[in-house]
């Protein structure tokens, strides 16, 4: 190598900087080539899928709905698409999919809960608290869930909210059921009938009828009903009509019409 000296008398090495840059570029090429080789190998191929927090929906159903392909690189899988596929299942409210390198996916779901049953043209439609249809069956277990009659359904599809002419009153019925849960009265409710002009009729398991107005404070109504039913029980009295349509005013009548 030829020596070169600057004006300050110090020796300089011509070409040393270029050699260093060339070496770094060569190392980068090898690194990228190695990374490409790893990505193209089966090292990141999907081998395991773990499904968490599911109870109503079987793991096999979730995997089938996800449309995941095993032995495909998990780096090429569109996680949002997988999540959307899973939420097409009526009972799945939300799905979250995460990669766990090198070869695992974790699916975490949040499920919808059966909240009430709508009676419609010989079918029994299970819905959640938001009115989303979960399933439709030909029969149901009596007193399994509150049965709602009188819903004027225009169309329904699994996994979507029920469409009905009296949808607002239907949702108010679900608010009533929520109020019954908060006041430990759910087991006392047998059926809810949606009547005309925003009127609800609740049937209790012991044969009483309760009239309620749409939009009322249903928690207050359920607390009042709880006290009334306790009093009726102490008198061994059933088969009455309890009118709770007007807040602060309660009327109890025998079905024959005698008022108390």
Automatic annotation (TrEMBL):
Checking InterPro entries in the record gives: Cell_div_FtsQ/DivIB_C, FtsQ_DivIB, POTRA, POTRA_FtsQ_type
Q: Which GO terms describe its cellular component?
A: plasma membrane
Q: Which UniProt keywords apply?
A: Cell cycle, Cell division, Cell membrane, Membrane, Transmembrane, Transmembrane helix
GO biological process terms, semicolon-separated: cell division
Write down a Pfam family by its short name. Answer: FtsQ_DivIB_C
Ranges that cross the membrane: 20-39
Question: Where is it located?
Answer: Membrane
In what residue span(s) does the POTRA domain sit?
A: 44-112
UniProt keyword Signal present: no
Q: What is this protein called?
A: FtsQ-type POTRA domain-containing protein
Q: Tell me the organism's taxonomic lineage.
A: Bacteria, Bacillati, Bacillota, Clostridia, Peptostreptococcales
């Amino acid at each position: 190598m030829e020596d070169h000296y600057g004006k300050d008398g110090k020796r300089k090495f011509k070409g040393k900087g270029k050699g260093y840059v060339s070496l770094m570029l060569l190392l980068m090429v090898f690194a990228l080539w190695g990374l490409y080789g790893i990505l193209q190998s089966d090292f990141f191929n999907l081998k395991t899928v773990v499904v968490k927090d599911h109870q109503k929906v079987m793991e096999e159903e979730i995997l089938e709905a996800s449309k995941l392909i095993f032995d495909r690189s998990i780096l090429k899988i569109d996680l949002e698409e997988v999540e959307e596929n899973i939420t097409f299942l009526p009972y799945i409210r939300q799905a979250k999919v995460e990669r766990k390198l090198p070869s695992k996916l974790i699916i975490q779901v949040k499920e919808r809960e059966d909240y009430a049953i709508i009676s419609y043209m010989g079918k029994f439609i299970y819905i959640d608290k938001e009115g989303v249809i979960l399933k439709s069956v030909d029969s149901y277990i009596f007193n399994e869930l509150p049965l709602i009659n009188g819903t004027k359904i225009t169309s329904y599809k699994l996994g979507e909210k029920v469409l009905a002419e009296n949808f607002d009153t239907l949702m108010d019925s679900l608010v009533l059921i929520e109020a019954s849960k908060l006041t430990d009265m759910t087991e006392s409710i047998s059926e809810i009938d949606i009547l005309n002009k925003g009127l609800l009729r609740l049937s209790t398991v012991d044969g009483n009828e309760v009239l309620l107005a749409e939009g009322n404070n249903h928690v207050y109504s359920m607390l009042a009903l709880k006290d009334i039913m306790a009093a009726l029980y102490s008198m061994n009295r059933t088969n009455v009509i309890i009118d709770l349509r007007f807040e602060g005013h309660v009327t109890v009548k025998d079905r024959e019409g005698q008022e108390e």
